[in-house]
Amino acid sequence: MAEHDDQLAALRREIDSVDTQLHDLLMQRTELAVRVGEVKAKAQPIGRTPSEGAKFVRPAREAKILRRLIGRHKGKLPKSVMVRMWREMISALLQVEGPFVVAVYTPPEEPGYWDIARDHYGCRVPILGFDRLNHAISAVLEGQATVAVLPMPHEGDRDPWWRRIAVKQPKVPHVIARLPFGNPGNQRGRGLQALVIGTTPNEPTDHDRGLLVAETREPVSRSAMRDALNAAKLKPVFIQAFQELGGPDQQVVEVEGFLAPDDPRLAALAEALGPNSRAIAIGGYAVPLTAEELAGEKPAKAPATDPAPTPEASSGDAA
Ligand SMILES: C=C(O[C@@H]1C=C(C(=O)O)C=C[C@H]1O)C(=O)O
Fold this sequence. Notes:
The chain is of the alpha+beta class. The chain has one domain (25-35, 54-296): 2-Layer Sandwich (Alpha-Beta Plaits). The protein has helices at 2-43, 59-72, 79-97, 112-121, 133-141, 222-231, 264-273, 311-318; strands at residues 102-105, 127-130, 147-151, 174-179, 194-198, 208-216, 236-243, 249-256, 278-286. Helix 1 packs across helix 3 (79-97) and helix 6 packs across helix 7. The longest helix is centred in the N-terminal third of the chain and has 42 residues, at 2-43. The chain is elongated. Residues 33, 36, 56-58, 61-62, 65, 90, 93-94, 97 line the site of ligand ISJ.
């Protein structure tokens, strides 16, 4: 028994020593983030309102940090827990640098977007919940929030939110991230995917996707759109169309790789689509960690009493 107690005590002394080192390093990292924030503030005047937080956040850098660490990860600590811990730390340090407020689409029937936002931006970030998509977007446009977490576009949307950001104006937000970045874990509404919009300029990582909106006077078939994209050297991942009675035909296209607002392929696409067409970049994101990158761990099990069935689950029930 004494030997068992001694072993335990010795291992716990080692854990205490590791904790002290981790804590020291965490405080050291905090100091570095403070200095990074000071350097950013020297480059441009930054105020204290939520929209000013866009001048501090660097989603590309955040994605690269996580991708690198997950790539070198070993041992029994699940990779998704690594992601969660780093997300909590990065978000907290971002808030040490400057203000950050997250608007989230939280209709009563779909609480999962709140979970996605909290997993990514941490437990301390102020979250403003909106049960209307337009209000969440307005929160960013009007400066109450730094970013907004919105549903991934899907076919058949009757009033797609991406139309609101398909405008070339500096203060209009664009897509800056896709969530969840790691495993959904115990997030409610397990299949949920979200896009984040904000005004911070996008930067490339080595794993990016771009989003654009193509607008034409007359409806364009899916295959004609593919041909035009091909002519403009843009590789589509998905295309979703929307047409309002009497309005132009609008299609949101996700493409492989990074897409800057002034990418010459946008002009080439508009030209390939014919007169009175336009193609506008609406942002993009660093691709979330893939199943291969997260290999070695099974997705967490959904709780037995999930209060929010996913849309897939509810349509399955009805069938
Ligand atoms: C520290 C920085 O600022 C923020 C915080 C980051 C971090 O804690 O690593 C990374 C990117 C930024 O969103 C930075 O830009 O490097």
